[in-house]
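$ ./design --mode recover --in tokens.txt
reading tokens...
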């Protein structure tokens, strides 16, 4: 009798080990290209998946050289999740070192969200890669992330779907909050000008007229032609202020601001979250910080009105 109890106990133990519960960790390892995508992947994956990031907070996602820890993470990963639409030109270096059959998923290229064209700089007419800057764009990324993780860890698919649904609800609430905050900016002040065209989707979502000196940070910044075009534009339509971003040099916008005699504000955050002690250490805080910067600079009635 006692022997039987022990046998059943051992059998039960073996079954428990063989069938992982829904909350157990998988062995799945994911490398995300930069801080924003890493946060979205972690939001869907929970504790079930190990997530590494290539470009850390405060560093420009466009311009990066792989570090030894990056190479180690890439050698061990099962999956790379990146933005695509040429946001990360250094992916060429990644593809050179990983196995040919390593799955690589480009969120912006698969997302069910309309791409906007770049309207300034060397790559005019190409799709603008900064789709995550609209919460609805980020929600479209979340769908692709949930599908991708479920394909690689099907035992956890229900948990991934649930967390994706929760995350999309949070993004919807954030969108409504930003809409309300930015809605107060007078119509005459709704011109947003930045160094890089990284806020195109944000400007589109919240009804700002938008322009930038260049399209993407990995092209030549602030060419003479770009600077002259912007000077003419600002002479014609004077916004209450101009903005620079955390990962762009301030000098070009500073020159524009001096020439046009307009205030310069920033930094806005686009291509990187800030470190944990900065004002944009999460996706929601990044968009809230940007909205407050816009509100402070564009929000009041114009002096000449
Ligand atoms: Zn950018």
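writing sequence...
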């Amino acid at each position: 009798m006692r022997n039987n109890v022990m046998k059943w106990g051992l059998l039960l133990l073996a079954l428990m080990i063989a069938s992982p519960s829904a909350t157990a960790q998988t062995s799945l390892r994911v490398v995300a290209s930069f801080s924003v995508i890493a946060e979205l992947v972690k939001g869907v994956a929970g504790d079930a998946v190990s997530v590494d990031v290539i470009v850390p907070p405060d560093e420009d996602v466009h311009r990066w050289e792989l570090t030894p820890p990056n190479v180690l993470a890439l050698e061990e990963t099962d999956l790379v999740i990146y933005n695509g639409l040429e946001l990360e030109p250094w992916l060429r270096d990644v593809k050179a070192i990983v196995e040919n059959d390593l799955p690589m998923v480009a969120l912006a290229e698969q997302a069910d969200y309309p791409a906007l064209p770049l309207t300034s700089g060397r790559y005019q007419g190409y799709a603008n890669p900064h789709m995550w800057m609209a919460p609805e764009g980020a929600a479209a990324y979340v769908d692709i992330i949930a599908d991708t993780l479920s394909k690689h860890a099907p035992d956890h698919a229900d948990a991934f779907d649930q967390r994706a649904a929760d995350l999309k609800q949070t993004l919807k609430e954030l969108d409504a909050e930003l809409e309300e905050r930015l809605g107060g900016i007078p119509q005459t002040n709704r011109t947003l000008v930045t160094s890089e065209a990284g806020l195109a989707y944000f400007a589109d979502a919240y009804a700002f007229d938008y322009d930038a000196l260049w399209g993407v940070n990995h092209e030549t910044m602030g060419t003479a032609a770009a600077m002259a075009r912007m000077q003419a534009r600002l002479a014609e339509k004077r916004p209450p202020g101009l903005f620079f971003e955390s990962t762009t040099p301030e000098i070009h916008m500073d020159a524009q601001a001096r020439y046009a005699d307009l205030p310069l504000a920033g930094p806005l955050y686009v291509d990187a979250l800030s470190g944990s002690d900065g004002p944009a250490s999460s996706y929601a805080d990044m968009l809230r910080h940007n909205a407050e910067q816009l509100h402070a600079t564009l929000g009041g009635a114009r002096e000449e009105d």
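exit 0
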